[in-house]
Amino acid sequence: MAFLASWRLNFTDADNRAHSRSGRTHSRPRSSYPVITSRSFNEATGKEVFFKCENLQRAGAFKIRGATNKILSLTEDEKKRGVAAFSSGNHAQAVALASREAGIRAVIAMPDDAPQAKVAATRAYGAEIVFYDRLKQDRERVAIEIAEREGRVMVPPYDDYQILAGQALAAWSFSKKFPISIACWRPAVAADCSPA
Hints:
This protein has 196 residues and is an alpha/beta fold. The chain is 45% helix and 15% strand.
């Protein structure tokens, strides 16, 4: 993970792709998802806490931002070859949906005990699913073998510049609207963490 620290995310390209994909991920140009607060949560924490509703994205999570950004950054040759990924849920759905919207084929390695709702959604978005036994097989290795055997491009859930830049747009768009000096970022939460 040390190599991630050397990446300086450039949001311009990812933001431009987000604006060009309006309708694909509900990332409408110059708009963002609602940000809400909770009086009882604020009282319990002693801080003002903001919740950015990324769960309203298509596929139900911020993961669609990274998957779409990665897939839209592929060359035409890479798109023709298709993609492979591994996930037990949100990333699987995101890659399946982003691939369908881009008109490319996706194969997703999912554990055989993945939640049936996630499996059904991933299939409904058009991906082929290859199941594996999470107790006996390494999920990343399964997906890498698929990608190598079939010449596909890997779309990992993390450790990828385009994935990180796309997912980080959630926090970037939030910080433009709600600037705070010190923040704790979580997939759906940003909280003022400054000392009391």
